[in-house]
Write a structure and sequence with these properties.
With about 450 residues, the protein is an alpha+beta fold. About 30% of the residues lie in helices and about 20% in strands. The strands form 5 sheets. Strands 5, 6, 7, 8, 9, 10 and 11 form a 7-stranded antiparallel sheet that branches. A hairpin with a 2-residue loop joins strand 12 and strand 13. The longest helix is centred in the first third of the chain and has 21 residues.
Amino acid sequence: MPAYGPEVIGPPPRDTDQQFWDPDIQTMDPQRRRDLQDERVRSMIRAVFERPVPLFLRKLQSAGIESPDDVRSVDDLSAIPTIVKQDLRDSEADAPPWGEYRFTDPRAGVRLGTSTGTTGQPTISVWTRNDLFIEYESAARNWWRMGNRPGMIATHAHPAYLYAGGPMLSSAYEYFGFLNVWVPPPDTDELAESALRFWQRVTPDIPFMGFSTGRFFEVAAKLGIDPKSAGLEFKSMPGFGMGKGLPLMTAGAECYAYLGGACGRLPGAHIHEDWCVVQAIDPDTGREVPDGEWGNLTVTTLGRDNGLLRYDLEEACALLREPCPCGETSIRGLWGGRIKDLLSSQGKRFQVTELEGALRRVPEINEPTLEYVVVKPDGGGAPLVVRVECATAGDAAEVGQRIETLIGEHLGIRAACELIERGALPRSGYKTSRVVDG
Ligand SMILES: [Zn+2]
């Protein structure tokens, strides 16, 4: 009989000195892992035919795949057409509310959440206990790899309710054994202050590092609160600043929230390949691009009750396969931002984060936080317009020129920098929009 008691809502304890959360899986022989992936791909395809799952079944049939026997391994995935977010949205609109892409009755799930809906109607995600278990274990590998251990106090400021990211992070923290301190997102100065005051009482062991970190620093400065007294500290994360992108850590809550994590020894994040196949594909052919090159991040989840097959997130990723000295045997992934956020100016294509890299080198505009927007370029030859908040009492023209020079060195383009007063740009409690239309 399975265990029944408080221990079933948490994992068995580990030796805190061991290097990996799940050594058997994380250091598994790559060929054995590939066999496991092949087996899980086959069982997913079988489920598409047998349940059936109409959205995916139609995709398979459109590619001439008529029986589960036609897809035997990861190698066969390239023949399957991808689906994108809009397909999920359309499916829910045509067959409300769930659409035709669920592998289980939604009532077999225990948690529901929606995507942020920044583009169009939010889609609905449903997790069974098994699906949550996969996310919790994946998150645990990431936190352990970073050197964090159960017993630490961890905090976050994600939005709540129907938005899935907050409940997911809170419950994954609890599963791992962190003391979970969930404060509201700093949508207003008052909310930011209440969080800061609480962190002064119960100070997290792991400094708050989220989308809105800058907001907290800014409000702390306004109130004369020493950020350190609230546990706030800019801390470099493993794998950031290595290679040409960021570590590929997530495919979004709707697909795979804790897809991978960086070890900091080589660029990129170790991908949890036992629970997914990640491909960097050329969207025109559906085939994988060579290792190290940007392609569309395409994920097939494995082992879930509710999976996604060949889901193209319309984001850029690059995969790296050379063995890592840390001992973890998975491939590694780099993330290059959303494809539609790629900016094009003067014949160069780049991400806003690359521009930010240049701005970070100018001390006068980084205290207490860097606040800027870029005017969406039309792809022509005009200088890129960047508006930056600056409180300097010194020579503003000199600061502006230095910014333009750094952007030129970093991105190889001409920029026109407009310095504006501190506080002039709108603030957001969660993800800040850096690209404006004019
Ligand atoms: Zn490694």
